[in-house]
Protein backbone atom coordinates (compact mmCIF):
# COMPACT_ATOMS: atom_id res chain seq x y z
CA UNK A 1 0.00 0.00 0.00
CA UNK A 2 1.13 3.50 -0.83
CA UNK A 3 -0.34 5.32 2.20
CA UNK A 4 -0.21 9.10 1.91
CA UNK A 5 -1.09 11.33 4.86
CA UNK A 6 -3.24 14.35 4.00
CA UNK A 7 -3.80 15.52 7.58
CA UNK A 8 -3.28 14.13 11.09
CA UNK A 9 -6.79 12.64 10.84
CA UNK A 10 -6.75 11.30 7.28
CA UNK A 11 -4.58 9.22 4.97
CA UNK A 12 -5.43 7.97 1.49
CA UNK A 13 -4.20 5.45 -1.05
CA UNK A 14 -5.18 3.60 -4.17
CA UNK A 15 -7.09 0.32 -4.16
CA UNK A 16 -6.41 -2.00 -1.23
CA UNK A 17 -7.00 -5.71 -0.71
CA UNK A 18 -8.80 -7.34 2.22
CA UNK A 19 -5.43 -8.62 3.44
CA UNK A 20 -4.18 -5.03 3.81
CA UNK A 21 -6.71 -4.14 6.51
CA UNK A 22 -4.70 -5.83 9.27
CA UNK A 23 -1.77 -3.56 8.40
CA UNK A 24 -4.05 -0.53 8.59
CA UNK A 25 -5.09 -1.61 12.08
CA UNK A 26 -1.43 -2.04 13.03
CA UNK A 27 -0.67 1.48 11.81
CA UNK A 28 -3.30 2.93 14.14
CA UNK A 29 -6.21 3.60 11.77
CA UNK A 30 -9.65 3.21 13.32
CA UNK A 31 -11.90 3.67 10.28
CA UNK A 32 -11.87 2.82 6.57
CA UNK A 33 -13.78 4.68 3.85
CA UNK A 34 -14.21 3.27 0.35
CA UNK A 35 -14.72 5.92 -2.35
CA UNK A 36 -14.51 3.53 -5.31
CA UNK A 37 -17.74 2.15 -6.77
CA UNK A 38 -17.98 -1.64 -6.88
CA UNK A 39 -17.26 -3.14 -10.28
CA UNK A 40 -15.13 -0.25 -11.56
CA UNK A 41 -12.21 -2.61 -12.25
CA UNK A 42 -12.03 -6.30 -13.08
CA UNK A 43 -9.57 -7.21 -10.31
CA UNK A 44 -11.15 -4.96 -7.70
CA UNK A 45 -12.32 -6.51 -4.41
CA UNK A 46 -15.86 -5.53 -3.49
CA UNK A 47 -16.64 -3.06 -0.75
CA UNK A 48 -18.33 -5.90 1.16
CA UNK A 49 -15.05 -7.85 1.24
CA UNK A 50 -13.21 -4.86 2.67
CA UNK A 51 -16.05 -4.20 5.10
CA UNK A 52 -15.85 -7.79 6.45
CA UNK A 53 -12.07 -7.48 6.83
CA UNK A 54 -12.49 -4.16 8.65
CA UNK A 55 -15.11 -5.62 10.98
CA UNK A 56 -12.79 -8.54 11.77
CA UNK A 57 -10.11 -6.03 12.81
CA UNK A 58 -12.51 -3.94 14.86
CA UNK A 59 -12.44 -1.02 12.40
CA UNK A 60 -15.39 1.11 11.32
CA UNK A 61 -16.21 1.00 7.60
CA UNK A 62 -18.18 3.32 5.36
CA UNK A 63 -19.00 2.95 1.65
CA UNK A 64 -19.15 6.35 -0.14
CA UNK A 65 -18.76 5.54 -3.86
CA UNK A 66 -17.89 8.35 -6.27
CA UNK A 67 -17.70 8.03 -10.05
CA UNK A 68 -14.26 9.03 -11.35
CA UNK A 69 -14.20 12.67 -12.45
CA UNK A 70 -17.69 13.33 -11.04
CA UNK A 71 -17.23 14.40 -7.44
CA UNK A 72 -20.47 16.19 -6.59
CA UNK A 73 -21.07 18.77 -3.88
CA UNK A 74 -23.22 16.17 -2.09
CA UNK A 75 -20.36 13.65 -2.22
CA UNK A 76 -18.01 16.17 -0.59
CA UNK A 77 -20.56 16.98 2.10
CA UNK A 78 -21.05 13.26 2.84
CA UNK A 79 -17.31 12.73 3.09
CA UNK A 80 -16.97 15.64 5.51
CA UNK A 81 -19.82 14.20 7.60
CA UNK A 82 -18.07 10.82 7.65
CA UNK A 83 -14.84 12.41 8.90
CA UNK A 84 -16.77 14.05 11.73
CA UNK A 85 -18.67 10.91 12.69
CA UNK A 86 -16.09 8.13 12.29
CA UNK A 87 -13.39 7.50 14.88
CA UNK A 88 -10.05 8.71 13.63
CA UNK A 89 -7.58 8.54 12.19
CA UNK A 90 -9.44 7.60 9.00
CA UNK A 91 -8.06 5.76 5.98
CA UNK A 92 -9.81 6.40 2.63
CA UNK A 93 -9.16 4.77 -0.71
CA UNK A 94 -10.26 4.78 -4.36
CA UNK A 95 -8.42 3.70 -7.50
CA UNK A 96 -5.46 6.06 -7.05
CA UNK A 97 -6.31 8.17 -3.98
CA UNK A 98 -7.25 11.18 -6.11
CA UNK A 99 -11.01 11.01 -5.49
CA UNK A 100 -10.49 10.61 -1.74
CA UNK A 101 -8.11 13.59 -1.72
CA UNK A 102 -10.55 15.68 -3.75
CA UNK A 103 -13.38 14.84 -1.37
CA UNK A 104 -11.24 15.90 1.58
CA UNK A 105 -10.19 19.15 -0.12
CA UNK A 106 -13.78 20.12 -0.91
CA UNK A 107 -15.04 19.08 2.52
CA UNK A 108 -12.46 21.30 4.22
CA UNK A 109 -13.21 24.38 2.09
CA UNK A 110 -14.55 27.18 4.23
CA UNK A 111 -12.88 25.85 7.37
CA UNK A 112 -9.25 25.83 6.19
CA UNK A 113 -7.44 28.39 4.01
CA UNK A 114 -7.18 27.36 0.36
CA UNK A 115 -3.40 27.53 0.49
CA UNK A 116 -3.36 25.06 3.40
CA UNK A 117 -5.66 22.67 1.52
CA UNK A 118 -3.62 22.87 -1.69
CA UNK A 119 -0.34 22.47 0.19
CA UNK A 120 -1.56 19.39 2.09
CA UNK A 121 -2.77 17.59 -1.01
CA UNK A 122 0.26 18.69 -3.02
CA UNK A 123 2.59 17.28 -0.37
CA UNK A 124 0.76 13.96 -0.67
CA UNK A 125 1.18 13.98 -4.45
CA UNK A 126 -2.33 15.08 -5.48
CA UNK A 127 -2.92 18.24 -7.53
CA UNK A 128 -6.17 19.98 -6.55
CA UNK A 129 -5.93 22.94 -8.92
CA UNK A 130 -8.67 21.43 -11.04
CA UNK A 131 -11.14 22.08 -8.22
CA UNK A 132 -9.58 25.35 -7.01
CA UNK A 133 -12.66 27.37 -7.93
CA UNK A 134 -14.85 25.03 -5.91
CA UNK A 135 -12.52 25.21 -2.93
CA UNK A 136 -12.58 29.02 -3.17
CA UNK A 137 -16.39 28.80 -3.29
CA UNK A 138 -16.63 26.95 0.03
CA UNK A 139 -16.44 23.50 -1.59
CA UNK A 140 -19.47 24.05 -3.81
CA UNK A 141 -19.63 24.27 -7.59
CA UNK A 142 -19.91 27.96 -8.59
CA UNK A 143 -23.12 28.77 -10.44
CA UNK A 144 -21.88 32.13 -11.72
CA UNK A 145 -18.17 32.89 -11.87
CA UNK A 146 -18.75 36.52 -12.87
CA UNK A 147 -15.58 36.55 -14.95
CA UNK A 148 -13.83 39.78 -15.83
CA UNK A 149 -11.32 39.71 -18.67
CA UNK A 150 -8.23 41.82 -19.40
CA UNK A 151 -5.40 42.00 -21.90
CA UNK A 152 -2.87 41.93 -19.06
CA UNK A 153 -3.39 41.03 -15.41
CA UNK A 154 -0.69 42.00 -12.89
CA UNK A 155 -0.71 40.33 -9.48
CA UNK A 156 0.87 42.56 -6.83
CA UNK A 157 0.98 46.36 -6.60
CA UNK A 158 4.33 46.73 -4.89
CA UNK A 159 7.35 48.36 -6.49
CA UNK A 160 7.52 45.77 -9.27
CA UNK A 161 3.79 45.68 -10.03
CA UNK A 162 3.17 49.41 -10.29
CA UNK A 163 6.42 49.97 -12.19
CA UNK A 164 5.65 47.31 -14.80
CA UNK A 165 2.07 48.55 -15.17
CA UNK A 166 3.35 52.08 -15.83
CA UNK A 167 6.01 50.83 -18.25
CA UNK A 168 3.41 48.83 -20.17
CA UNK A 169 1.08 51.83 -20.36
CA UNK A 170 3.96 53.94 -21.69
CA UNK A 171 4.46 51.43 -24.51
CA UNK A 172 0.81 50.72 -25.31
CA UNK A 173 -1.74 53.09 -23.79
CA UNK A 174 -4.60 51.09 -25.29
CA UNK A 175 -3.97 47.94 -23.24
CA UNK A 176 -6.72 46.83 -20.89
CA UNK A 177 -4.69 46.20 -17.71
CA UNK A 178 -5.82 45.04 -14.28
CA UNK A 179 -3.67 45.30 -11.15
CA UNK A 180 -4.68 42.98 -8.29
CA UNK A 181 -3.71 43.85 -4.71
CA UNK A 182 -5.72 44.08 -1.47
CA UNK A 183 -3.46 46.62 0.28
CA UNK A 184 -4.54 50.17 1.08
CA UNK A 185 -1.00 51.50 1.60
CA UNK A 186 2.09 51.26 -0.59
CA UNK A 187 5.45 51.40 1.20
CA UNK A 188 8.87 52.55 0.09
CA UNK A 189 10.57 49.71 1.91
CA UNK A 190 14.19 50.73 1.15
CA UNK A 191 13.55 53.72 3.41
CA UNK A 192 12.91 51.65 6.52
CA UNK A 193 16.62 51.20 7.22
CA UNK A 194 16.89 54.99 7.32
CA UNK A 195 13.88 55.19 9.65
CA UNK A 196 15.61 52.72 11.96
CA UNK A 197 18.70 54.93 11.83
CA UNK A 198 16.84 58.14 12.66
CA UNK A 199 17.32 59.63 9.17
CA UNK A 200 13.83 59.34 7.60
CA UNK A 201 10.43 59.85 9.22
CA UNK A 202 8.13 56.81 8.87
CA UNK A 203 5.47 58.83 7.05
CA UNK A 204 7.96 59.59 4.28
CA UNK A 205 7.92 55.91 3.31
CA UNK A 206 4.16 55.45 2.82
CA UNK A 207 1.52 56.62 0.34
CA UNK A 208 -2.04 55.51 -0.33
CA UNK A 209 -2.24 52.78 -2.96
CA UNK A 210 -4.99 54.59 -4.83
CA UNK A 211 -2.74 57.59 -5.42
CA UNK A 212 -0.12 55.42 -7.16
CA UNK A 213 -2.15 53.12 -9.43
CA UNK A 214 -1.40 54.32 -12.99
CA UNK A 215 -4.19 56.18 -14.72
CA UNK A 216 -6.19 53.86 -16.96
CA UNK A 217 -5.25 50.71 -15.01
CA UNK A 218 -8.07 48.83 -13.26
CA UNK A 219 -7.31 48.25 -9.58
CA UNK A 220 -8.93 45.07 -8.28
CA UNK A 221 -8.69 45.42 -4.51
CA UNK A 222 -8.71 41.73 -3.60
CA UNK A 223 -6.45 38.87 -2.57
CA UNK A 224 -5.50 36.08 -4.95
CA UNK A 225 -6.52 32.59 -3.85
CA UNK A 226 -5.14 30.48 -6.71
CA UNK A 227 -3.96 30.38 -10.32
CA UNK A 228 -5.35 28.37 -13.24
CA UNK A 229 -2.69 29.00 -15.89
CA UNK A 230 -4.10 26.27 -18.16
CA UNK A 231 -7.35 28.27 -18.25
CA UNK A 232 -5.70 31.72 -18.24
CA UNK A 233 -7.47 32.53 -15.00
CA UNK A 234 -6.71 34.00 -11.58
CA UNK A 235 -9.08 33.02 -8.77
CA UNK A 236 -9.71 35.66 -6.12
CA UNK A 237 -10.87 35.13 -2.55
CA UNK A 238 -14.61 34.60 -2.71
CA UNK A 239 -14.34 32.64 -5.97
CA UNK A 240 -14.38 35.61 -8.31
CA UNK A 241 -12.45 34.75 -11.47
CA UNK A 242 -10.33 37.12 -13.52
CA UNK A 243 -9.34 35.99 -17.02
CA UNK A 244 -6.28 37.23 -18.87
CA UNK A 245 -4.46 37.05 -22.18
CA UNK A 246 -1.15 37.66 -20.41
CA UNK A 247 -0.25 37.45 -16.74
CA UNK A 248 2.52 39.20 -14.78
CA UNK A 249 3.18 37.87 -11.28
CA UNK A 250 4.95 40.09 -8.73
CA UNK A 251 3.38 39.91 -5.25
CA UNK A 252 6.70 40.12 -3.44
CA UNK A 253 7.65 37.62 -0.76
CA UNK A 254 6.34 36.63 2.65
CA UNK A 255 8.06 37.63 5.88
CA UNK A 256 7.78 34.44 7.89
CA UNK A 257 7.73 35.93 11.40
CA UNK A 258 6.38 32.73 12.91
CA UNK A 259 9.41 30.88 11.49
CA UNK A 260 11.20 31.91 14.70
CA UNK A 261 9.60 30.45 17.81
CA UNK A 262 8.37 33.16 20.19
CA UNK A 263 9.18 36.05 17.87
CA UNK A 264 5.70 37.35 17.03
CA UNK A 265 4.70 37.57 20.69
CA UNK A 266 7.60 39.87 21.55
CA UNK A 267 8.04 42.07 18.48
CA UNK A 268 8.02 45.76 19.35
CA UNK A 269 8.82 45.25 23.02
CA UNK A 270 11.41 43.65 25.31
CA UNK A 271 14.15 45.13 23.13
CA UNK A 272 13.08 43.06 20.08
CA UNK A 273 12.77 45.02 16.83
CA UNK A 274 13.11 44.84 13.04
CA UNK A 275 13.50 47.35 10.22
CA UNK A 276 11.61 44.92 8.00
CA UNK A 277 8.28 46.28 9.24
CA UNK A 278 6.94 49.83 8.95
CA UNK A 279 5.61 49.98 12.51
CA UNK A 280 8.79 48.52 14.05
CA UNK A 281 11.51 50.62 12.38
CA UNK A 282 10.84 53.60 14.72
CA UNK A 283 11.26 51.24 17.68
CA UNK A 284 14.72 50.35 16.34
CA UNK A 285 15.74 54.00 16.50
CA UNK A 286 14.24 54.34 19.98
CA UNK A 287 16.22 51.35 21.24
CA UNK A 288 19.45 52.63 19.67
CA UNK A 289 19.05 56.05 21.27
CA UNK A 290 18.20 54.61 24.69
CA UNK A 291 20.99 52.05 24.77
CA UNK A 292 24.09 53.12 26.71
CA UNK A 293 25.60 49.72 27.52
CA UNK A 294 24.94 45.99 27.05
CA UNK A 295 24.67 43.54 24.18
CA UNK A 296 23.06 44.29 20.81
CA UNK A 297 22.50 41.35 18.47
CA UNK A 298 21.79 41.74 14.75
CA UNK A 299 20.57 38.66 12.89
CA UNK A 300 20.46 37.51 9.27
CA UNK A 301 18.47 34.40 8.20
CA UNK A 302 19.30 32.00 5.35
CA UNK A 303 19.00 33.32 1.81
CA UNK A 304 17.02 34.32 -0.10
CA UNK A 305 15.91 37.51 1.65
CA UNK A 306 14.94 40.93 0.38
CA UNK A 307 17.88 43.34 0.42
CA UNK A 308 20.60 41.07 1.76
CA UNK A 309 22.54 44.08 3.03
CA UNK A 310 19.74 45.36 5.26
CA UNK A 311 20.63 43.22 8.30
CA UNK A 312 24.08 44.76 8.53
CA UNK A 313 22.91 48.23 7.54
CA UNK A 314 21.02 48.26 10.85
CA UNK A 315 24.24 47.29 12.62
CA UNK A 316 26.33 50.00 10.97
CA UNK A 317 23.90 52.86 11.58
CA UNK A 318 23.44 51.75 15.19
CA UNK A 319 27.21 51.45 15.73
CA UNK A 320 27.73 54.88 14.20
CA UNK A 321 25.20 56.45 16.61
CA UNK A 322 26.80 54.75 19.60
CA UNK A 323 30.24 55.93 18.48
CA UNK A 324 29.01 59.52 18.14
CA UNK A 325 27.30 59.26 21.54
CA UNK A 326 30.52 58.03 23.15
CA UNK A 327 29.04 54.74 24.41
CA UNK A 328 30.33 52.31 21.76
CA UNK A 329 33.04 50.97 24.09
CA UNK A 330 30.32 49.78 26.48
CA UNK A 331 28.24 47.96 23.86
CA UNK A 332 28.86 44.39 22.75
CA UNK A 333 27.73 44.15 19.11
CA UNK A 334 27.13 40.65 17.72
CA UNK A 335 26.28 39.96 14.08
CA UNK A 336 24.78 36.46 13.82
CA UNK A 337 24.55 35.46 10.17
CA UNK A 338 23.09 32.13 8.99
CA UNK A 339 25.42 32.34 5.98
CA UNK A 340 29.16 32.01 5.79
CA UNK A 341 30.23 35.38 4.36
CA UNK A 342 29.73 39.02 5.29
CA UNK A 343 28.49 39.92 1.78
CA UNK A 344 27.94 37.76 -1.29
CA UNK A 345 30.03 39.86 -3.70
CA UNK A 346 33.66 39.78 -2.53
CA UNK A 347 34.66 43.16 -4.03
CA UNK A 348 32.68 44.98 -1.33
CA UNK A 349 33.82 42.90 1.64
CA UNK A 350 37.11 44.72 2.47
CA UNK A 351 35.35 48.05 3.00
CA UNK A 352 32.65 46.41 5.12
CA UNK A 353 35.16 44.53 7.24
CA UNK A 354 36.78 47.83 8.18
CA UNK A 355 33.46 49.01 9.61
CA UNK A 356 32.93 45.74 11.46
CA UNK A 357 36.33 46.40 13.04
CA UNK A 358 35.52 50.06 13.66
CA UNK A 359 32.38 49.19 15.60
CA UNK A 360 34.02 46.28 17.41
CA UNK A 361 31.35 43.88 16.15
CA UNK A 362 31.79 40.12 16.49
CA UNK A 363 30.94 38.10 13.38
CA UNK A 364 29.22 34.79 14.09
CA UNK A 365 28.73 32.93 10.83
CA UNK A 366 26.40 29.93 10.38
CA UNK A 367 24.26 31.17 13.31
CA UNK A 368 20.55 31.04 12.47
CA UNK A 369 17.98 32.44 14.89
CA UNK A 370 15.39 29.75 15.71
CA UNK A 371 13.77 30.94 18.94
CA UNK A 372 13.50 34.01 21.11
CA UNK A 373 12.29 34.62 24.66
CA UNK A 374 11.58 38.33 24.85
CA UNK A 375 10.80 38.69 28.58
CA UNK A 376 13.92 36.68 29.48
CA UNK A 377 15.94 38.52 26.80
CA UNK A 378 17.41 35.30 25.42
CA UNK A 379 17.84 34.22 21.79
CA UNK A 380 18.54 30.69 20.59
CA UNK A 381 20.61 30.05 17.47
CA UNK A 382 21.14 26.88 15.49
CA UNK A 383 24.78 26.68 14.47
CA UNK A 384 25.46 24.70 11.28
CA UNK A 385 29.14 24.97 10.44
CA UNK A 386 30.47 23.03 7.43
CA UNK A 387 31.64 19.50 8.24
CA UNK A 388 30.34 19.75 11.82
CA UNK A 389 27.30 18.48 13.67
CA UNK A 390 24.61 21.14 14.21
CA UNK A 391 24.52 22.65 17.68
CA UNK A 392 22.46 25.31 19.43
CA UNK A 393 23.68 28.28 21.42
CA UNK A 394 21.75 30.64 23.65
CA UNK A 395 22.70 34.30 23.84
CA UNK A 396 21.42 37.00 26.15
CA UNK A 397 20.65 40.43 24.71
CA UNK A 398 19.60 43.92 25.71
CA UNK A 399 18.54 44.73 22.15
CA UNK A 400 18.08 42.44 19.17
CA UNK A 401 17.38 43.45 15.57
CA UNK A 402 15.72 40.48 13.89
CA UNK A 403 15.45 39.78 10.18
CA UNK A 404 12.70 37.14 9.70
CA UNK A 405 13.02 34.09 7.45
CA UNK A 406 11.50 34.81 4.05
CA UNK A 407 9.55 32.59 1.67
CA UNK A 408 7.29 32.92 -1.35
CA UNK A 409 3.65 33.75 -0.50
CA UNK A 410 1.50 30.71 0.24
CA UNK A 411 -0.68 31.11 -2.86
CA UNK A 412 2.47 31.13 -5.00
CA UNK A 413 4.17 28.15 -3.34
CA UNK A 414 1.18 25.86 -3.94
CA UNK A 415 0.51 27.08 -7.50
CA UNK A 416 1.43 25.48 -10.85
CA UNK A 417 3.67 28.51 -11.47
CA UNK A 418 6.14 27.57 -8.72
CA UNK A 419 9.40 25.64 -8.87
CA UNK A 420 10.30 22.97 -6.32
CA UNK A 421 11.38 25.65 -3.83
CA UNK A 422 8.12 27.59 -4.19
CA UNK A 423 9.31 30.54 -6.33
CA UNK A 424 7.86 31.49 -9.73
CA UNK A 425 9.89 29.59 -12.32
CA UNK A 426 11.23 31.98 -14.99
CA UNK A 427 13.93 32.25 -17.61
CA UNK A 428 16.51 34.46 -15.94
CA UNK A 429 17.09 36.60 -19.02
CA UNK A 430 13.59 37.22 -20.42
CA UNK A 431 11.73 36.71 -17.06
CA UNK A 432 9.16 34.66 -18.97
CA UNK A 433 7.75 31.58 -17.27
CA UNK A 434 9.49 28.38 -18.31
CA UNK A 435 6.23 26.46 -18.82
CA UNK A 436 3.52 29.05 -19.55
CA UNK A 437 4.42 31.32 -22.47
CA UNK A 438 1.90 34.01 -21.55
CA UNK A 439 3.16 34.42 -17.96
CA UNK A 440 6.02 36.63 -16.72
CA UNK A 441 7.32 37.39 -13.26
CA UNK A 442 9.55 40.00 -11.64
CA UNK A 443 10.47 41.29 -8.23
CA UNK A 444 11.15 39.24 -5.14
CA UNK A 445 8.87 36.30 -5.96
CA UNK A 446 10.64 34.87 -9.02
CA UNK A 447 13.53 32.43 -8.98
CA UNK A 448 16.21 34.17 -11.04
CA UNK A 449 19.50 34.13 -9.06
CA UNK A 450 19.64 37.88 -8.42
CA UNK A 451 19.52 40.07 -5.33
CA UNK A 452 15.96 40.80 -4.21
CA UNK A 453 15.99 44.61 -4.10
CA UNK A 454 13.83 47.50 -5.30
CA UNK A 455 16.70 48.46 -7.60
CA UNK A 456 16.45 45.05 -9.23
CA UNK A 457 12.71 45.55 -9.80
CA UNK A 458 13.45 48.96 -11.33
CA UNK A 459 15.57 47.22 -13.98
CA UNK A 460 13.24 44.26 -14.42
CA UNK A 461 10.06 46.25 -15.06
CA UNK A 462 11.16 47.66 -18.46
CA UNK A 463 12.46 44.22 -19.49
CA UNK A 464 9.10 42.57 -18.78
CA UNK A 465 7.21 45.48 -20.37
CA UNK A 466 9.33 45.26 -23.52
CA UNK A 467 8.88 41.49 -23.79
CA UNK A 468 5.15 41.54 -23.10
CA UNK A 469 4.69 44.31 -25.67
CA UNK A 470 6.73 42.28 -28.17
CA UNK A 471 4.61 39.20 -27.48
CA UNK A 472 1.41 41.17 -28.05
CA UNK A 473 2.83 42.31 -31.38
CA UNK A 474 3.58 38.70 -32.32
CA UNK A 475 7.33 39.00 -31.90
CA UNK A 476 9.88 37.00 -29.89
CA UNK A 477 11.36 38.43 -26.67
CA UNK A 478 13.54 41.47 -27.33
CA UNK A 479 14.97 42.45 -23.92
CA UNK A 480 17.07 40.70 -21.31
CA UNK A 481 17.70 41.22 -17.61
CA UNK A 482 21.35 40.99 -16.59
CA UNK A 483 20.73 40.30 -12.91
CA UNK A 484 21.31 43.89 -11.81
CA UNK A 485 20.72 44.65 -8.17
CA UNK A 486 21.87 47.47 -5.94
CA UNK A 487 22.45 47.55 -2.22
CA UNK A 488 23.44 50.94 -0.77
CA UNK A 489 25.22 49.79 2.40
CA UNK A 490 24.83 52.58 4.95
CA UNK A 491 28.10 52.06 6.81
CA UNK A 492 27.83 55.32 8.76
CA UNK A 493 25.64 58.42 8.74
CA UNK A 494 26.85 60.34 5.71
CA UNK A 495 28.67 57.51 3.90
CA UNK A 496 27.56 54.52 1.86
CA UNK A 497 29.24 51.61 0.09
CA UNK A 498 27.16 51.46 -3.10
CA UNK A 499 27.13 47.80 -4.11
CA UNK A 500 25.88 47.30 -7.67
CA UNK A 501 26.20 43.89 -9.28
CA UNK A 502 24.56 41.37 -11.59
CA UNK A 503 24.46 37.66 -12.18
CA UNK A 504 27.49 35.82 -10.88
CA UNK A 505 28.61 38.80 -8.80
CA UNK A 506 29.65 40.82 -11.87
CA UNK A 507 30.11 44.48 -10.92
CA UNK A 508 27.63 46.74 -12.73
CA UNK A 509 28.35 50.29 -11.56
CA UNK A 510 25.99 53.02 -12.70
CA UNK A 511 28.56 55.80 -12.37
CA UNK A 512 32.23 56.27 -13.29
CA UNK A 513 34.66 55.67 -10.43
CA UNK A 514 35.52 59.35 -10.21
CA UNK A 515 31.86 60.05 -9.39
CA UNK A 516 31.12 57.09 -7.11
CA UNK A 517 33.56 54.26 -6.42
CA UNK A 518 31.13 51.63 -5.20
CA UNK A 519 33.77 49.56 -3.45
CA UNK A 520 34.53 52.39 -1.03
CA UNK A 521 32.39 54.41 1.38
CA UNK A 522 31.47 57.75 -0.21
CA UNK A 523 29.40 60.82 0.63
CA UNK A 524 28.16 60.93 -2.96
CA UNK A 525 26.49 57.54 -2.51
CA UNK A 526 24.88 58.77 0.72
CA UNK A 527 23.51 61.81 -1.13
CA UNK A 528 22.11 59.44 -3.78
CA UNK A 529 20.41 57.26 -1.15
CA UNK A 530 19.09 60.08 1.04
CA UNK A 531 18.12 62.75 -1.49
CA UNK A 532 17.80 61.22 -4.96
CA UNK A 533 16.50 57.66 -4.70
CA UNK A 534 13.19 58.42 -2.92
CA UNK A 535 11.98 60.90 -5.58
CA UNK A 536 13.32 58.61 -8.32
CA UNK A 537 11.20 55.84 -6.82
CA UNK A 538 7.97 57.84 -6.40
CA UNK A 539 8.18 60.11 -9.45
CA UNK A 540 10.09 58.04 -12.01
CA UNK A 541 10.05 54.28 -11.38
CA UNK A 542 6.40 54.06 -10.36
CA UNK A 543 5.38 56.33 -13.23
CA UNK A 544 7.09 54.40 -16.01
CA UNK A 545 9.95 56.88 -16.45
CA UNK A 546 12.83 54.48 -16.90
CA UNK A 547 15.73 56.66 -15.78
CA UNK A 548 18.99 54.70 -16.17
CA UNK A 549 16.91 51.53 -16.70
CA UNK A 550 16.92 51.11 -20.47
CA UNK A 551 16.42 47.41 -21.26
CA UNK A 552 19.40 45.58 -22.70
CA UNK A 553 18.63 43.99 -26.11
CA UNK A 554 18.33 40.22 -25.92
CA UNK A 555 20.58 39.86 -28.97
CA UNK A 556 23.55 41.00 -26.88
CA UNK A 557 23.41 37.71 -24.97
CA UNK A 558 23.43 35.69 -28.16
CA UNK A 559 26.36 37.47 -29.75
Automatic annotation (TrEMBL):
Gene Ontology molecular functions: FAD binding; hydrolase activity; quinone binding; sulfide:quinone oxidoreductase activity; transferase activity
Record keywords: FAD, Flavoprotein, Oxidoreductase, Quinone, Transferase, Transit peptide
Domain of life of the native organism: Bacteria
Record-annotated Beta-lactamase hydrolase-like protein phosphatase-like domain positions: 2-110
Entries under Pfam families matching the protein: BLH_phosphatase, Pyr_redox_2
GO biological process terms, semicolon-separated: sulfide oxidation, using sulfide:quinone oxidoreductase
Coiled coil: none
NCBIfam families given in the database record: TIGR01244 family sulfur transferase (TIGR01244)
Protein name: TIGR01244 family sulfur transferase
Organism per entry: Psychromarinibacter sediminicola
Amino acid sequence: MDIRHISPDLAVSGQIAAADVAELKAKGFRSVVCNRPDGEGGDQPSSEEIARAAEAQGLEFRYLPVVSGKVSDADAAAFGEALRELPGPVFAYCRSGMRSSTLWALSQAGTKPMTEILAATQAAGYDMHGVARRIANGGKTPTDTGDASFDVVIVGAGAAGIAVASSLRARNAGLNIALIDPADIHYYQPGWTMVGGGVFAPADTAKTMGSLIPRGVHWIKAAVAAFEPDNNAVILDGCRVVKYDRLIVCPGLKLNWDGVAGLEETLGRNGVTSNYRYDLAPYTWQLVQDMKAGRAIFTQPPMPIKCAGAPQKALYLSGDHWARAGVLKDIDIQFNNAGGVLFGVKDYVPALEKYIEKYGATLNFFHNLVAIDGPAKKATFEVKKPDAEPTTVEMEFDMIHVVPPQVAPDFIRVSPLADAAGWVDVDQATLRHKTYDNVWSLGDVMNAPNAKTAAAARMQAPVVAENVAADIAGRAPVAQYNGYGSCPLTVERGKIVLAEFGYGGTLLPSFPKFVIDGTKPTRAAWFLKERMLPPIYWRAMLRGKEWMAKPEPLSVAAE
